[in-house]
Amino acid sequence: MACASTPPRKIALVGYRGVQSLDLTGPFEVFAMANRFSGVRAYEPILASPSGGDIVCNSGVKLADTVAFADLPDDLDTILVGGGDEPGLRSMGEAAILAWLNDRARTTRRVGSVCSGAFVLAAAGMLDGRRATTHWEVCEVMRAFRPEVRLEPDAIFVADPPFYTSAGVTAGIDLCLSFVEDDCGPEVALAVARNLVLFMRRPGGQTQYSAGLNVQTAATPKIRTLIAEVSADPSGDRSLPSLADQVGMTERTFSRIFVKETGTTPAAFVEMARVDRAKALLETSDWPLARVAERSGFGSSDALHRAFQKRVGATPGDYRARFGRRPAAG
To answer: Rg for the chain (alpha carbons), in Å?
Structure first.
């Protein structure tokens, strides 16, 4: 495998006072686990900060003995800037820090960010004219801050080499897992994903968290109850007439109210719920795709395939290969 023939790749995980701790510790765990499963010391993750020493995260967690920028090794392979609170991000916008980052980018293979850490890369001018993402809550802020960035709000992560950006918090884990797959191969990445219980990792977009959770926040009790029922069992008759009848409304009234309260159409929600169910079946069973399609509420394997390509950006087979359970030994 690729890891075996190379020296450890030095990864600088950049924090500061007010950083989100998981933006650093999540990637650190991915790289440490890759060392375990690759059988070699594939990575040397380094917690770094502008001045070194201890930093206090926005949760109050203290990370000790970070390495100062000036003391980082010359041969960094990857720099990954964590997101954090507004004062912390503003502190990272100092001219000296941005100059250091731009200087290092010339000799570093990958420069990336987790969550709102994208604002640091954007402030350095690295994302101008490039595709990028950040946490969905601050996408409009990013557009106002740096309109030159070609923002993709729904992406889990965006690769526009040599720059890489990821969405909110745990999306940094997805990004780093993709680094491991590129560096060490899919077998090592899959082993890391399984060990860290990442088979539920969302490969399509920031809005991929459970279809029910995605739409029910602002819904009234009657619509929330329907959402819960469809999420629990998306198979069967989930047509517009059936759903409208279930809540005692006309189809036109139901459609209008559903869109108003959830931000999506009934048909789109049912499709998302069915994709969620199919994901779970692909992860936990070895059923043929026709059976997965049937149990998820899709009329055929072709319908399942089309929905996956649309919602997940992968085929059902590819999803199972990456996140499905391992076959029994022997």
So the answer is: 22
Q: Looking at 76-80, 99-103, 190-194, which range is the least confident one? A: 190-194
CB 68 within 8 A of CB 48: yes
Dihedral of alpha carbons 178, 151, 49, 108, sign: positive
- What is the separation of C-alpha 255 from the centre of its chain, rounded to a whole number of angstroms? 31
DSSP β-bridge partners for residue 9: 43
Stated pTM of the model: 0.66
Residue 201: per-residue pLDDT: 43
Number of other CB atoms surrounding residue 178 within 10 Å:
18
Give tens-digit pLDDT for 221-263. 888 888 888 887 899 899 999 999 999 999 999 999 999 888 8
Distance between CA atoms of residues 123 and 21, nearest Å: 22
Considering only the C-alpha atoms of the chain, give the largest distance between any 2 of them, rounded to a whole number of Å: 68
Q: Where are the alpha helices (DSSP H) in 169-265?
A: 171-184, 186-195, 211-216, 221-232, 240-246, 251-262
C-alpha dist (Å) from residue 261 to 223, 233, 247, 258, 275: 8, 21, 14, 5, 21
Burial classification of residue 229, based on how many CB atoms lie within 10 Å of its CB (0-12 exposed, 13-18 middle, 19 or more buried): middle
